[in-house]
Amino acid sequence: xxxSIGVIGAGSWGTSLANLLAKKGYQVTLWAYxxxxxxxxxxxxxxDLYLQGITLSENMVFTNRIEDAANKQCVLFVPPSQAxxxxxxxxxxxxxxxxLIISASKGIENDTLSPMSEIFQQILPKxxxxxxxxxxxxTFAKEVALEKPSAVVAAAExxxxxxxxxxxxxxxxxxxxxxxxxxxxxxxxxxxxVIALAAGVCDGLGYGYNxxxxxxxxxxxxxxxxxxxxxxxxxxxxxxxxxxDLVLTCTGDLSRNRTVGIELGKGRxxxxxxxxxxxxxxxVKTTLSTYQLAAKLQVEVPIVEQMHAILYQDKDPRQAxxxxxxxxxxxxxx
Length: 334
Hints:
The chain is an alpha/beta fold. The chain has two domains: about 5-180, Rossmann fold (3-Layer(aba) Sandwich), CATH 3.40.50.720; about 190-325, N-(1-d-carboxylethyl)-l-norvaline Dehydrogenase, domain 2, CATH 1.10.1040.10. It is about 50% helix and about 15% strand. The protein has 16 helices and ten strands. The protein has an eight-stranded mixed beta sheet, with helices on both faces. The protein has a two-stranded antiparallel ribbon with strand order 3-4. Strand 1, helix 1 (about 10-25) and strand 2 form a beta-alpha-beta unit. It is globular. The model has no long low-confidence stretch (mean pLDDT about 95).
């Protein structure tokens, strides 16, 4: 039975999940990259950089030494997706063959075009690959920290590992379902951030609810097409890690990706927007990976393509919408 948990990554989501586990009675060690943040959290039990206003459980301790978190019975990885490979590589030597590993990061690595599960498969020894689960679903960190009812999915190829993760995280306000479609759950959680950027662009341009609904629905079609091409199950995209997370991130005011999109729609430049943000909008880099992955697999993703052009080719957002609306007419199911 798991008694000690290490959490790698003290962003808003990592901190919120660490706090949830600590409030259940587990002894949790939270690793943060920023040494000064570790010092402040140790003194105040508040993450004033990423999760302001939440007092953290007394069952939590904080460290800047990654080995202090990686040597626990369960290790939860929540770093930015583009840092996952480096962070995981640093931790492997401290984990034993019985460690339960859970990833809660959402993204697709640039250059390699690997979702997080492929990174884990490439770096972990075989016995640990089989003890890894992936947590995803429609959740804002602040709402989970405030114990507002939420639901997520724990995905693993081995059902017993998915159940172990389910039982670890489930509370009266945080309901966890299991799923065996790892790649579908991962792609849903990653690509929805790209569509959320586009939803924000439409909001920033002043378009209405009709536009947003159309964008979410056609964005889901793109997520599903790319997922199926990578071996995912179609029904996963109708679930929490697909439609659920997509709707939340495209409509919620706490969505960082939607916020970036709104500012782009208002005519601001990407670097100016990102320069004002403390937390990472994963969708910006995931857009590049998704665009390249779809091209590699020859999957049609017009919304992703236009979002890529806005972010990386300085395309006028209004022109991007015009081109999407003027595409060749076709059946909805094509």
